[in-house]
Amino acid sequence: MSTGVVLLNFGEPAEPTRENVVAYLERIFLNNAALEEADTEEEKRERARQLAERRAPGLIEEYEEIGGSPLKPQAEAQADALADELAERGYDADTYLGMQFTEPFIADAVEAAHADDVDRLVALPIYPLCGASTTIAANEELREAADDLDWDVPVAEITGWHRHPRYNEIRADNVRRFADAHGLDLRDSATELVYSAHGTPRHYLEEGSRYDTYVEEFCDVVGRKLGVDSYSLGYQNHENRDIPWTEPEVEDVVEELGDDDSVERIVVEPISFMHEQSETLSELDDELREEAEEVGLDFYRVPVPHDDDRFKSVLGDLVEPFVGDFDPGYYQYRQCQCSDSPDAMCLNAPVERI
Fold first, then answer.
1. Per-residue pLDDT tens for 138-170?
2. I need a labelling partner for 141 at 20 to 30 A (CA). Which of 74, 223, 229, 301 fits?
3. Is 198 marked within a binding site?
4. Global pTM?
């Protein structure tokens, strides 16, 4: 039985043209239209266009500064690495890359798998921490794409997977190696480890998303593996709409640390990212660095371990029960509590006590 594994991703424009960026932003804002009231589809589209036009100039400038987003080639490399890993494990599986907001879109990936006549699909979001507008939305889009093709194909949906032990090891090792390479002691009271996580509208948390809980527990475990007693957590919010977002904002965290005379430097770990992109290369490396230096803090940013050789084995473990056709519970999968789909499985759900 052949399997198509679709690696689901957010996407970013590789070329920072106005046409590309505006279209990208419109898709994002339309996808999150429920955050504001609108009576008709036309009103939703018009609001998305207005928000995109307003945000585009600043984002184009960010992309120009970093030379375009490297997200797509990094994601393609991960898909290729997973294909090699599954072949080494003896499985008949093809991998496909599908993006939520840039090409190749999720529908393109599903169409490619359909053309290859695979027998089943596995949806694998490359979002370590399960979120409503990322993980859950991407899985829903994949199911809809299959329905649009009138393709009655079995679909296994993976959601939260940040608890995978080797993934925790990768993140902790990556921070440790970076600190060692720069002569930094993370246990020194003058050095503060700052986790920076992608923000999310509080609307999704109020609707039942556990994203903030997952972020907090992941930060705690990675900190314990590093032997760090004290750390700070901030969110990178994108306040294009006048709605509440996750708190505290990472900029506020840095400003507060600047007021602490005992702290001389910060080591920023982009804990929720599995690719380098505008949020890391521009928002952190340029904007947050500038804010840190303005308040007298030395700034160090940990690179995202997107090309760690061990990551392909993490992805291989995540999909193995579904391509190997054995009980996902053997790998500690349980029914996802963040998704309405009966086919969604995660590593985050609590164990049922008998």
1. 999 999 999 999 999 999 999 999 999 999 999
2. 74
3. yes
4. 0.94
